Amino acid sequence: MSQSLEAVSLECVRGDRRLFSDVGFALEPGELLHVTGRNGSGKTTLLRMVCGLVRPQTGMVCWGGKPVSTLGDEFFRQLTFVGHLNAIKDELTGRENLMVEAALRGNPVSESQAASALSRMGLKGHDRLPAKVLSQGQRRRTALARLLLADTPLWVLDEPFVALDVHAVETLQHAIAEHVAADGMVVLTTHQEVPIKAGRKRTLHMGGSGTGVAA
Amino acid sequence: MSQSLEAVSLECVRGDRRLFSDVGFALEPGELLHVTGRNGSGKTTLLRMVCGLVRPQTGMVCWGGKPVSTLGDEFFRQLTFVGHLNAIKDELTGRENLMVEAALRGNPVSESQAASALSRMGLKGHDRLPAKVLSQGQRRRTALARLLLADTPLWVLDEPFVALDVHAVETLQHAIAEHVAADGMVVLTTHQEVPIKAGRKRTLHMGGSGTGVAA
Amino acid sequence: MFAVTGMVRRDVILAMRRRADVLTTLFFFVIVAALFPLGIGPEMATLRIMGPGVLWVAALLASMLSLGRMFAADYADGTLEQMLVLPQPLSLLVLGKVVAHWLGSGLPLVLLSPVLGLQYGLAPDVLKVLVISLLLGTPVLSLIGAIGAALTLGLRGGGVLVALLVLPLYVPVLIFGAGAVEAHSSGLGGEGHLSLLGAFLLMALALSPWAAATALRISLD
Amino acid sequence: MFAVTGMVRRDVILAMRRRADVLTTLFFFVIVAALFPLGIGPEMATLRIMGPGVLWVAALLASMLSLGRMFAADYADGTLEQMLVLPQPLSLLVLGKVVAHWLGSGLPLVLLSPVLGLQYGLAPDVLKVLVISLLLGTPVLSLIGAIGAALTLGLRGGGVLVALLVLPLYVPVLIFGAGAVEAHSSGLGGEGHLSLLGAFLLMALALSPWAAATALRISLD
Amino acid sequence: MKPRQKRFALVAIGLVALAGAGTLVVNAMRSNLVFFFSPSDVMEGKAPHNKAFRLGGLVEAGSVQRQADGLTVHFVVTDMKKSVPVAYKGILPDMFSEGQGAVAQGRMGADGTFTASEVLAKHDEKYMPPEVADALERAGKDPSKGQHPGGQPGGMPSGMQNGGA
Amino acid sequence: MAIHWTKYSAPSAFYPMAGRSLPWLAAGTLLLTAVGVYMGLFSAPTDYKQGEAYRIMFIHVPAAWMSMWLYIVMAAYAGLGLVYNTRMAHMLAAATAPTGAIFAFLALWTGAFWGRPMWGAWWVWDARLTSELILFFLYLGVMALRAAIDDRQRADRASALLALVGVVNVPIIYFSVKWWNTLHQGATIDFSGSKMDRSMLWPMLILTVAFWLYSFVTIFLRARCEILERERHAEWVGELLDNRG
Ligand code: HEM
Ligand SMILES: Nc1ncnc2c1ncn2[C@@H]1O[C@H](COP(=O)(O)OP(=O)(O)OP(=O)(O)O)[C@@H](O)[C@H]1O
Ligand SMILES: Nc1ncnc2c1ncn2[C@@H]1O[C@H](COP(=O)(O)OP(=O)(O)OP(=O)(O)O)[C@@H](O)[C@H]1O
Ligand SMILES: [Mg+2]
Ligand SMILES: [Mg+2]
Question: For the packed helices D191-220 and D90-105, what is the interaxial angle rounded to 10 degrees?
């Protein structure tokens, strides 16, 4: 069942500031939404709103036509989110991190699956170290390896390329392009370019007033 | 008195791994050292070693020919370090952060100086908000504004461009180039390009064995 | 149900990696229990009267101190955020975390309490009631504590703020827990107190995972 | 010297921004002091004996609980790293942080203790000795605590681990602090105890900033 | 399970737990959770034996005897069924008087006398001017018995009757 | 009903309404307090048992009642705010807490003051006294939590949740004297009537109404400040401030 993601006239107020208002977009399978904007324009907040982590002041986010706030688990089952925090446990090794997270999702993966996802992210030989000792970039890679194991249609990625070196950036760009080509959906923010092979790319620019109807 | 920075056959062992060995470089006023390398190759560790935060297994770091471990404060007075943590207090506003830090250094700055540094970093209008509510990029900008106030010859910057948007990247590149042109020294890591107007740029590539004599 | 067990497994593995945590809660309990005779003087008669109260207060403080651990690490590294977007009821995940917290901070105290009780000269049957009261009471402390920990997530000085929030709700548990032992040792039978503790436990089981889950959603907004 | 005052100023400003921190330490103290009569029973004679001990233990716990705040925030946001590369002697910066910590967590307790002492039925002259003993003792707690807090920096479960590390060193302070009050109220005169406390204070002032600074360098390596 | 069923199951489990809690509370109320013990409790051996406890009831009319030292007092505490003699040395609260409620803290002696270390006065929930009380008394009603049909028998302050019922 | 109460859930409507009613409420508070205090001190007779000391009751009982009632009010607003996400409800909950805390403190303090002559003890750990103390700490907890959180929405919702959790304590306070054997007296006034002479009952009831009006006054005042602060960028606040000059 292929679903669509839609945001309708979202508004966010933080403190005294109206961060954004009347932001909307619609995303079909096989599409990528690149959220751009200056620092502090509200990209992270928008992404968290899409995931149901932040409640919009007005407006709503819909999945397959239904508001995600009423869908609950049903929506989360379609979603993989990589925030700007890596969400990996320092005490666990890379493999264990992936396995534990998959088990909690309800789709357990085997150790060899986890290992192969990590080695695709260029972490071969580092996947049995506790995450604590990894470098910034290695930690980011571990967090992103989750995407290679997920079979959810919707990926939401907040600055996924941060701290990655050129190799890793390439690998990730490739993975994203493949996901889109396979009728997946991606919402991401980044200050870099995101080339995709197939599918459609939309851009949503945040900032200024009357922002945000996706082009 | 213009001094030089020199690192002599540094070695670092972490856990069971020899992260790097026999790394050395020499940096004169008006030079920039760009430390490159894959994720996990030891760039952050090297920079912290230069600042005296990590003790090398063998080798040493010298300032003006003397080991920094014996120089203590004298060396720190020449150094501004921006690590991958931003070192700003959530409770304080941007201005207060800069002022408090400068006061502790022993070179107090006035509120208007702090405000102008922040506005040069594009934070005009955000410099009275508690840092807690700022976005990732805005926080990074606040941390970097320190550089504009510092009058130390040596800057050590760990991935300063992370989370910055294109405007901010440009501003910072400009500031770095100016510092180098004014006979300053910069050691930085980044996966991006760093154009400078005047002075000399060296590159130190970490990774592989026998790494690291600066070209 | 699966969400609960999965979470418990995860947190128990993490606790095993950091065995120091569990051990230090235990040591804290032991040390507080040992401090009192130092602060007050070693008269056996006084100690016997104070014993149950001191042990209960020590257990309460130990449990409260370890509340900080319940969500803080997950919050800081972003795994809590991920938990909120897992396709599982959040309240069950929270229940799992609470159970794991109790296994690491409540259960060891319960198991250790008879030994410390002996030090205060408590009789065997009194010790039995002490253990039962702690067995019923410490999970309530973890459950209530979860709400406080979730509410104060990420606030500076949260450790002390959480104390302020949960202590008022801990007080009844303390009163009936220590009261059960006292009632028993004075020949009254502590059944009434114990069944009230049981009632607290059921009530907390029913309400607190839900309240803590709501608090988490609020704290991460 | 400038490093000390600058640091104190900074930390006091930060504490003012989060007034809740100071208030909650106070509340914690009050609540613990109020819990004991609950756990132990309300006999005035017993309470009067226990009073000084309980207040001292409560002050010790409150001070210990707030240790987490001393370096943790600075560590997490990277300002501690910056402190290490400041052109100032680290031990003086640490001393500044300790003083600020005491102003926010020790001094208020000292000021509040007479009120709580009244609740335990202590006589005015006993209260005076209590206040003096706390005035000498709580800075020692902050100073010793700084070493523990610095050593456990960034370790998960640090809150409990730090308790384990500092409690053994706290015990003598507790014994002589509570002992001073007891000695006085039993007519022996607490001067001996108090001057020992003073000796502890001077010793801690001389050694602990240096030890804590070294511990910080180790923790950040 | 569908999400809706899941939620329903969770709510049902919660309700069952709450019902269980209710049952336990009722059960607890039936056993004694008390601030003090009545003389009947003491006589039936329900009160602690070698430990301090609180004894509560009415001070029997005409039972108060002051010793020559002016400080030691003997009186009898009763709940209209059983009574216990009490000895106390110290200052009594102003409200302490015969026919009034009192709560004494102390231990039972071997001779059957309760030695109190502290005596608290307990009063009932009735407030009226003295004239009304007189009038009621003249009409043959004990004023402390209450003007309501549901008034307490035996003139006990109501709190003293329901030993946790 | 002719008045649409829901309309006042908008801050812009609540603000002037509260402003208009404040003088009346304040006048009522002063008047009833004066009458109540006069009656309590002079026209109410001496009690047949407690003598004059019982007059503390005229403060103690209304304060105790209000402390419990305001907690319920606060929790109700908190619940409304959580469920319907209305700003006004959160502001009212925030404004209610300090008044409630003051009354709880007053009840504790007058109770202790009264207990000394009546019972012979300032304080005992019986169920009524303990649960009222817990109420006081819950108020403090709600306020401290709110103060500790910078983000206003999070502060609102977090303290609302805490207020709701604490509501279990209120019935415990009320029924504690029934369920347990307490040193505190049982209910004088309950749903079956009063065991108090009319001449004493009236001043107490009048003072209760006075305290109630006082709560309105302080809560409205605080809510108005809160509104101005939170809505200072709203158009209507701008107009309001302009009109003032
Ligand atoms: C610190 C000590 C005290 C506290 C915390 C306290 C608390 C309370 C509370 C919460 C209520 C309201 C309960 C209700 O509506 O049923 C109340 C009512 C009352 N209290 Fe107290 N009280 C204390 C001491 C006293 C003392 C010493 C007396 C009298 C000797 C007293 C007499 C009353 C009376 C007459 C009522 C009204 C009862 C009714 O009509 O329902 N209180 N108290
Ligand atoms: N205890 C340990 N055992 C094994 N390896 C370790 C240990 N501690 C650290 N390491 C390794 O040390 C390296 C740390 O490198 P560092 O953080 O300096 O990398 P970096 O070059 O800054 O990378 P990045 O570009 O990702 O920031 C990592 O490769 C990590 O795996
Ligand atoms: N309480 C508040 N008061 C005022 N402004 C606030 C408050 N809370 C958040 N903000 C603002 O909200 C914005 C947060 O934006 P967000 O983190 O979504 O930005 P972003 O687009 O992801 O930026 P970046 O590129 O730097 O990651 C910031 O501009 C911040 O200043
Ligand atoms: Mg962002
Ligand atoms: Mg790095």
Answer: 130
C-alpha F145/C-alpha A150 separation (Å) is: 39
CA distance B76 to B153: 11
Confidence (pLDDT) at A213: 43
ipTM of the complex: 0.80
Query: Contact, D36 vs D166, CB < 8 A?
Result: no
CA triplet B185, B189, B194: central angle to 5 degrees? 70
Is any ligand 2 atom within 6 A of the Cβ of residue A93? no
Residues with CB under 5 A from ligand 5 (ion): A 136; B 44
Alpha carbons B140 and B142: distance in angstroms, whole number = 5
Asked if residue B56 lies in contact with residue B21, where contact means CB atoms within 8 angstroms, the answer is: no
Per-residue burial over D119-144, b if 16 or more Cβ lie within 10 Å, else e, is bbebeeebbbbbbbbbbbbbbbbbbb
Q: Identify the residue whose C-alpha is closest to ligand 3 atom 13.
A: A40
Query: Which residues are CB-contacts of A141 (< 8 A; sequence separation ≥ 6)?
Result: A118, A121, A122, A123, A164, A168, B39
Question: Rounded to whole angstroms, how far apart are CA atoms E156 and F54?
Answer: 20
Residues A69-113 have pLDDT tens digits of 888 888 999 999 999 889 999 889 999 999 999 999 888 999 999
CA of A190 to the centre of ligand 4 (A): 9
Chain F stretch 141-180, residues whose beta carbon is closer than 8 A to a beta carbon of chain A = 151-152
State whether the beta carbon of B211 lies less than 6 angstroms from ligand 2.
Answer: no
Phi and psi at D199, nearest 5°, equal -60, -45
| Structure tokens belonging to residue C124 | 């065997």
Partners of A82 in beta bridges: A157
- CB < 8 Å from A in window 84-123 of F: 85
Inter-CA distances, C138 with C7, C49, C99, C106, D41, Å: 20, 21, 11, 6, 21
DSSP-derived secondary structure for D8-75? HHHHHHHHHHTHHHHHHHHHHHHHHHHHHHHHH---HHHHHHHHHHHHHHHHHHHHHHTTHHHHHHHH
DSSP reduced 3-state for F26: helix
Locate the domains of chain F by residue range. Answer: 30-42+53-217
Cβ burial of B195 (10 Å; 0-12, 13-18, 19+) is exposed
Residues 6+ apart with CB under 8 A from B8: B24, B59, B60, B61, B62
Distance between D18 CA and the closest CA of chain F, angstroms: 7
Please give the helix or strand (H or E) that residue C161 lies within, else none: helix C158-185
**What's the pLDDT score for residue F90?**
94
F165: chain C residues, CB-CB within 8 Å: 147, 169, 207, 211
The answer to whether D45 and E117 have CB atoms below 8 angstroms apart is yes
Partners of C57 on chain D (C-beta within 8 Å) are: 32, 35-36, 39
Chain F residues touching E162 at Cβ < 8 A: 178, 181
Residue B41 DSSP SS3? coil
Other beta carbons within 10 Å of C103: 17
End-to-end CA distance of chain E: 44
What tokens appear for C57 in the block? 């207060």
| Percentage helix, strand, coil for chain F under 3-state DSSP, each rounded to 5 | 80, 5, 20
Is there a contact between C101 and C161 (Cβ–Cβ < 8 Å)?
no
CA pair distance F239, F245, nearest whole angstrom:
10
On the CB side of B68, CA atoms within 13 Å amount to: 28
Whether residue D75 is predicted with pLDDT greater than 50 in this model: the reply is yes
Specify the ligand 2 atom closest to the Cα of A140.
Answer: 26
What confidence tens digit (pLDDT) does each residue in F51-90 have? 777 888 899 999 999 999 999 999 999 999 998 888 899 9
CB-based contacts of D207, cutoff 8 Å, min separation 6: none
Q: Burial of B193 by CB count in 10 Å (0-12 exposed, 13-18 middle, 19+ buried)? A: exposed
